[in-house]
Every structure is written in C-alpha cells, then in structure tokens.
Amino acid sequence: MSKKETIRIPKETFLEIMTYIPTKELDKILQEVKRLRKKRKIEKTRLIEPSDLDPLIGMVHLGGDAVKDTEEFYE
Questions:
Q1: In the chain, how many domains are there?
Q2: Using an 8 Å Cβ cutoff, are 26 and 18 in contact?
Q3: CB-side neighbour CA atoms (13 Å) of 12
Q4: Residues 6+ apart with CB under 8 A from 29
Q5: What is the pLDDT of residues 21-74, one digit of tens each?
Q6: 3-class secondary structure per residue, the chain
Q7: Whole-angstrom Cα distance, residue 58 to residue 55?
Q8: Torsions phi, psi of 24, nearest 5?
Q9: Is 69 inside any structural domain?
Q10: Which of 24, 26, 38, 66 is most buried, with most CB under 10 Å away?
Q11: How large is the greatest C-alpha to C-alpha distance in the chain, in angstroms?
C-alpha cells in the first residue's frame, strides 16, 4: 500500500488547477467529494440503542450523598 502524503497549496493555485479539468471530470470529482464527506459524517456519528449500555450497569458505583461528602471535605 502506498504512503499518503498531504500537501498544502494556496486556494488560488487550487482554483487555477481546477480550471484545466474538463467539466465532465469536474462533475465526477465533485460527486466523489460529496460521497467522501457523507462517509466521514457517518463514521463520526455512531448511534447505538440505549439497551446496548445495559452491560455497563453496576460496573462503577456513582452517587451517594453529595452534601455529606462536601461537608467532610471542608471540615
């Protein structure tokens, strides 16, 4: 697998390069960009059912008497 590299170019240079791409190819590129953006959004958001969290019940005890804990801390 080839190594990917990222380069930065000024926006003006990018737009100048884009003017040389034929319209049909430019349309294909824009469709691919839209597809990749959609995929990235899907990958960032992972939805789960609330019941998927049930196995976590009881793993950590949270709660107690906050007032009592605070009073003990400051005494």
A1: 1
A2: yes
A3: 0
A4: 21
A5: 999 999 999 999 998 888 877 666 677 888 888 888 877 666 677 788 778 778
A6: CCCCCCCCCCHHHHHHHHCCCCHHHHHHHHHHHHHHHHHHHHHHCCCCCHHHHHHHCCCCCCCCCHHHHHHHHHC
A7: 8
A8: -60, -45
A9: no
A10: 26
A11: 76
Domain extent, residue 31, equals 21-46
In a domain, 29, yes or no: yes
Whether 63 maps to a domain, the answer reads no
- pTM, rounded to two decimals: 0.42
CA–CA distance, 39 with 45 (Å, rounded to integer) = 10
Judge whether 2 lies within some domain.
no
CA–CA distance, 75 with 18 (Å, rounded to integer): 69
Question: CA neighbours within 13 Å on the CB side: how many for 10?
Answer: 3
The residue with greater pLDDT, 63 or 13, is 13
